[in-house]
Design a protein that fits this description.
By secondary structure, the chain is of the alpha+beta class. The protein is built from 11 helices and 36 strands. Among the domains are: 3-297, alpha-galactosidase from lactobacil brevis (Beta-galactosidase, Chain A, domain 5, Distorted Sandwich), CATH 2.70.98; 390-446 and 456-495, no CATH class; 614-704, Immunoglobulin-like (Sandwich), CATH 2.60.40. It is globular and about 75 Å long. Bound molecules: alpha-D-galactopyranose (GLA).
């Protein structure tokens, strides 16, 4: 069992196959962190449980690595909990009041209870450990057991202490629309490095995960401490290094402009923040997160279907006859799901009108959606549809009927972004409106898939229907209501699959992935740019949910021309989709596409559910290469991409990973013809790559001779 409590020492020890996590109560009653890293004998650390004074300016240094910093007394580290009591007191004195260890299936959970020594406030710290993962899910929960309101000014999920490294390097993702998931590194020094979103959703500018290492970790080796937060609204992750060299990474719901009023008897639970440790470098970290997502987070284990989406082909000009023509071409290529994007409803001829009016446009679909759906089904595909339920165009019937349904301040003009405003979904009647139209849409039509979009940030966060003292709850309420709508819809329509999209990849995190079967990482579908975006994405998220489309050349965003094979190979490293204007594709292109799709179906389980190894990156090489291997190490696929060859340069042999050293593997896909090599040769001597020119690519299949 992973959790051991040493009552005699007041010491808590979590032990998984490759990791120990140890903390205890010191003589002042502080929950002091002691160790997170390679397995140790927890009891040995009991002697380190002691308070530590440096001077009157640093009176309780050990509070810098408190398991949860309760703001009060002489604690100055990033607070985990900061409250305001009804009488104006803003100081916490939380005392340990027992623990329990419980088992839920293959999960074990440690819950520590802390109570304020004067006020009716109980806090429970949760540590949940799944057998087989070197990961801990942590969150905090506050309960008002008194008689007055308690305002939570900041409640984070968890703080992860990392100690005794000579140097701390933090890796994280940065980005913007059309350039999401770009990897960044920063060396920490005294002070704070904060990554965050204050725009109402997860955001394209940063993503809620982090990795910390000593500076030398690479894809294959090195100690890495990492974490990912499950929250799709405003969040922050703060890496704080103290003057005493202690680093703690705290994270959770952002406190910016945020408060939560806890009435008597009420409880607030912060979202889970999962933390893990590996000695296997960034590749080891990613593979652990991918498996964790597949096994513990995602709503289904089903393979993603090869889809066609007509957005880039027809934009808002969605007409039944064009869609049918596209569907016929898609079916010919082997596509399994046909998706109609924006533009099928209301007066939606551009992004200026119609959002909010979720009735089928009678000009575009004179006989209803059924005509298209029937044809799609007849062609052997299933049907999917786009919605953006949280948004409204001022030029819509919905807005004309209910101008007060949007977030706004009565004395301010609302900022329109993409000509739209956001609905105050926490109003019961607005939430009901969304549930009703979605229920109608999904029960009146044979729809297998919903792409749920959200194309703007929250501004003027006035929460109509709530009193002034609850206005700052908007950021949390929006996410809670969104989650409850998805929960309800998934329960009502268990066979419908959902995609999370927010103008590309602006709402992808472990929170929304509990409800979403797949994710749209970026509106940038240029095959070269996408490789960088997909690489960053794969640091934290499984390629099994990463939707990638093959679109037209030249690309609509940047005019880049890329061979069809390069575009396919780039998209085949995740869950494959097609998004080009098939009406313009030649018969030869359709035929080539059909061959790529057929090849993809063969390797799909490897890509979506296998072990991913990033072999080479455009960040430091003209070569990008990524490999997928099955658990049995008998089957593998490698994708290699050359950006630009220069000076008649030759690429070094590509060394593979994850194979069985003694096995003989058949290698297909090399222009030089088939080869048979041993795993040891493939991993240590590598295979030569004859990629040439610009944007050249290869799909190499590696299969063990023996079963
Ligand atoms: C967003 C999405 C796109 C597409 C458009 C439609 O930008 O990310 O994929 O659905 O909206 O308006």
């Amino acid at each position: 069992m992973p959790i051991t409590v040493h009552d005699d020492l007041q010491l808590f020890e979590i032990r998984t196959a490759g990791m120990s996590y140890v903390f205890g109560l010191n003589e002042k009653g502080i929950l002091q962190h002691l160790h997170w890293g390679e397995p140790v004998a927890g009891r040995d650390l009991a002697h380190r449980l002691r308070s530590w004074t440096h001077s009157s300016f640093d009176a309780e240094v050990e509070r810098e690595c408190e398991e949860m910093s309760f703001w009060g007394g002489v604690g100055y580290a990033e607070p985990g909990l900061k409250v305001r009591f009804a009488d104006g007191v803003r100081d916490l004195r939380m005392r340990f009041d027992g623990y329990l260890v419980e088992t839920e299936g293959d999960l074990e959970r440690l819950v520590l209870t802390m109570r304020d020594e004067h006020y009716g406030l109980t806090v429970r710290l949760h540590y949940r450990v799944a057998a087989g993962f070197d990961l801990i899910e942590r969150w905090a929960e506050a309960e008002n057991t008194g008689s007055g309101d308690i305002v939570l000014e900041q409640i984070l999920s968890a703080a992860w202490s990392i100690s005794s490294l000579p140097r701390y390097r933090m890796t994280h993702a940065a980005g913007r629309w059309a350039g999401e998931y770009q990897l960044r590194e920063t060396v920490l020094s005294e002070g704070k490095k904060t990554i965050e979103s204050r725009r109402g959703f997860t955001g394209p500018h940063a993503n809620p995960w982090f990795a910390v290492d000593e500076g030398g970790a690479d894809e294959d080796a090195g100690r890495i401490w990492f974490g990912a937060l499950g929250w799709s609204g405003n969040w922050k992750i703060v890496a704080e290094q103290s003057s005493f060299g202690i680093v703690r990474v705290s994270g959770g719901i952002h406190d910016f402009d945020s408060e939560w009023r806890l009435g008597p008897g009420e409880t607030f639970a912060a979202p889970a923040f999962v933390g893990g440790f590996t000695i296997g470098g960034f590749g080891g970290m990613s593979r652990m997160l991918h498996r964790y997502e597949r096994e513990r987070i995602l709503p289904s284990k089903a393979l993603r279907k090869v889809l066609y989406n007509s957005w880039e082909a027809t934009a808002f000009d969605v007409r039944v006859e064009d869609q049918i023509e596209l569907a016929r071409k898609a079916a010919k290529m082997g596509v399994e799901r046909f998706v109609v994007d924006d533009g099928w409803f209301g007066a939606r001829d551009s992004d200026r009108a119609g959002l909010g009016d979720w009735t089928v446009n009678p000009v575009k679909f004179p006989h209803g959606l059924g005509e298209l759906i029937d044809e799609v089904k007849r062609l052997g595909m299933d049907f999917g549809i786009w919605v953006e339920p949280e948004s409204v165009n001022p030029d819509s019937e919905l807005y004309r009927r209910h101008p007060d349904w949007v977030y706004h301040f009565p004395t301010r003009t609302g900022s329109e972004l993409r000509n739209q405003l956001l609905l105050n979904i926490s109003k019961p009647e607005v939430k009901q409106y969304i549930l009703d139209f979605m229920t109608r849409l999904l029960s009146e039509h044979d729809i297998a898939f919903v792409k749920w979009d959200m194309n703007r940030t929250i501004t003027e966060p006035g929460l109509g229907g709530f009193p002034p003292e609850r206005q700052k709850e908007i950021w949390i309420r929006h996410v809670q209501t969104l989650y409850s709508i998805w929960t309800e819809l998934r329960a009502r329509f268990p066979r419908v699959e959902f995609e999370t999209c927010a103008g590309g990849g602006a709402r992808i995190d472990l929170g929304i992935l509990r409800f979403a079967d797949q994710a749209w990482p970026s509106d940038n579908t240029d095959a070269l740019d996408r490789l960088r975006i997909q690489e960053g994405f794969s640091y934290a998220y499984t390629p099994g949910v990463m939707m990638c489309w093959v679109t037209d050349s030249p690309n609509g965003l940047n005019g880049r021309r890329a061979p069809l094979s390069f575009r396919f190979h780039s998209a085949m490293t995740g869950a494959l989709g097609i998004g080009g204007n098939l009406k313009e594709w030649t018969d030869a292109e359709i035929e080539e596409a059909a061959a790529h799709i057929a090849a993809y179906k063969q390797i799909r389980p490897l890509v979506q559910q296998g072990l991913q190894y990033r072999l080479s990156s455009f960040r430091d090489s003209p070569l990008m290469a990524v490999q997928y291997v099955n658990e049995a190490r008998t089957d593998s696929v490698v994708f290699a991409f050359l950006h630009a060859q220069q000076f008649a340069g030759r690429l070094p042999a590509l060394r593979l990973r994850g194979l069985a050293a003694d096995r003989l593997y058949d290698i297909g896909g090399l222009p030089e013809g088939p080869l048979a090599l041993h795993g040891s040769t493939l991993m240590h001597a590598g295979i030569p790559l004859s990629l040439r020119g610009d944007l050249d690519s290869l799909l190499i299949r590696i299969r063990s001779r023996e079963a």
